[in-house]
Amino acid sequence: MLTLFSYPELFGVADNNPFGLKxxxxxxxxxxxxxxxxxxxxxxxxxxxxxxxxxxxxxxGDSDVIIAHLIRRYGLTIDDGLTVAxxxxxxxxxxVLDDLYWVMSYSRWKDDQFWPQFRDAFxxxxxxxxxxxxxxxxxxxxxxxxxxGIGRYEPDAAYAxxxxxxGVLARLVPQDGFVFGAKPTSLDAxxxxxxxxxxxxxxxxxxxxxxxxxxxxxxxCKAIHAAIAA
Length: 230
Description:
There is one protein chain. The chain folds into two domains: 2-74, 3-Layer(aba) Sandwich (Glutaredoxin), CATH 3.40.30.10; 84-227, Glutathione S-transferase Yfyf (Class Pi), Chain A, domain 2 (Up-down Bundle), CATH 1.20.1050. 57% of the residues lie in helices and 8% in strands. The chain has helices spanning 18-30, 63-74, 84-109, 115-125, 131-148, 155-172, 186-199, 206-212, 215-227; strands spanning 2-6, 34-38, 52-55, 58-61.
């Protein structure tokens, strides 16, 4: 059976990282049976990053590579109806979500205004986690943010970048249905991974405030959440 290794759940979503939640939603939408293992240690992960998928003896990392692998190996038809232009849009939106990830992560780990709420929620949900371990993870993330670049931004400038990303998504997501029609595609799974990790978290960052003001984003998030709940 397929096994998904990803970060722990939080605030009722299956993974507190957008990329792991994206794969979780994709697997559910496609009806593929799988085991879900929540881990934090990335030592065994390809490139030292989560999520990764174990398919037999094959270990696959990177969420886009995982989805491409699953579509190819299991003949999945979730994206079959997409045009070339829609596939181009798909790629561009995924790149926007990559950018949004850094701002979302910054809001949790880097911004002193919201870090205590994230830390306390994590500790309350996962009793085996220690404050020292989270502080060590925070120090590690500070280094990641610095070298990626977002860590050199002041909060207002960082959030301006994330809000610009969300603005694009708010203009893309329709009031009804899914991005490319009546049925979800893998892009809807990717959007859910990111938006749920902002909307569902009870931490009122500027990013969450924007999502709450755009009911099309809220509706889309709830629709995917309901579709994968079974």
